[in-house]
Amino acid sequence: MRANYNTVTGYGESEIIISKSRFLTFVERAETEQEAIAFIDKIKKQHYQATHNCSAYLIGEHDNIQKANDDGEPSGTAGVPMLEVLKKQGLKDVVVVVTRYFGGIKLGSGGLIRAYGKATTEGIKAAGVVARKQHRTIRVSADYTWLGKLENEIRNSSYTLVDIVYAENVELIVATPEEQKDTFAAWITELTNGQALTTFEAIDFVEFALT
After folding, report:
1. DSSP-derived 3-state class of residue 82
2. Which of 129, 103, 120 is nearest to 15 (CA)?
3. 3-class DSSP assignment, residue 55
4. What span, in angstroms and rounded, lies between the C-alpha atoms of 211 and 209?
5. How far apart are the first and last CA of the chain?
6. Which of helix, strand or coil describes residue 40?
7. Beta strands in the chain (DSSP E)
């Protein structure tokens, strides 16, 4: 499984006006190039009358797939600065489209680079950013006499209580950072004088909002 990483929460959009030109930004999470291309095509169809629909995406644990498209703007003034914003913010699995409706005033190369960079930044703010961190699911099984203490202690800890299963024994489903799983298990053993059974289950990502 890939390492912890930051990405956008999901879909977001924003709008800024620069020298009478409208810059509409559309952001989405994309875990494959096919998803990124489909999103770009969707926005282009919605804004087919726009002057430009510039795009950039960054996909993969090591940014294996990265593309930038100026869509008719001078080379290097739109897609590349958009891509650079994604890189500088340390985001992965993200696609961005900036749609421009020309307002009649030319911005020049420097102005375009700043405009597309700012538009991308605003779009990311609108979408929100999350940290995706590897967590191990741990099943804690104990006699019902331990339920109150275990639930209270876990809820007041840094660990995440996902669910409680009322079976023959009570089972508390907990998500812990992968690197803390052994510490958690030892803590449970101490809390219950060794009378609770901890079982390590799947590893998955848990998302934490950053913006």
Report:
1. helix
2. 120
3. strand
4. 6
5. 25
6. helix
7. 5-8, 12-18, 21-29, 52-59, 65-69, 94-101, 129-142, 160-166, 170-177, 197-209
Dihedral sign, Cα of residue 120, residue 125, residue 128, residue 131: positive
Distances 165 to 27, 47, 146, 147 between C-alpha atoms, Å:
38, 49, 14, 11
Confirm if 54 and 98 have CB atoms less than 8 A apart.
yes
Both tokens of 7, joined, read: 């990405």
Tokens for 157?
Answer: 């800890």
Nearest to 160 by CA among 170, 148, 172: 172
Distance (Å, whole) CA 176 – CA 137: 7
Q: What is the dihedral sign for C-alpha 158, 160, 165, 166? A: positive
Model pLDDT for residues 135-194, shown as the tens digit of each residue: 999 999 999 999 999 999 999 999 999 999 999 999 999 999 989 999 999 999 999 999
Q: Is the distance from CB of 125 to CB of 16 less than 8 angstroms?
A: no
Query: pLDDT digit string (tens) for 93-137?
Result: 999 999 999 999 999 999 999 999 999 999 999 999 999 999 999
Q: Give residue 178's identity as a one-letter amino acid code.
A: E
What pLDDT sits at residue 3? 81
Residue 48 structure tokens: 């087919």
Angle formed at CA 36 by CA 31 and CA 37, multiple of 5 degrees: 145
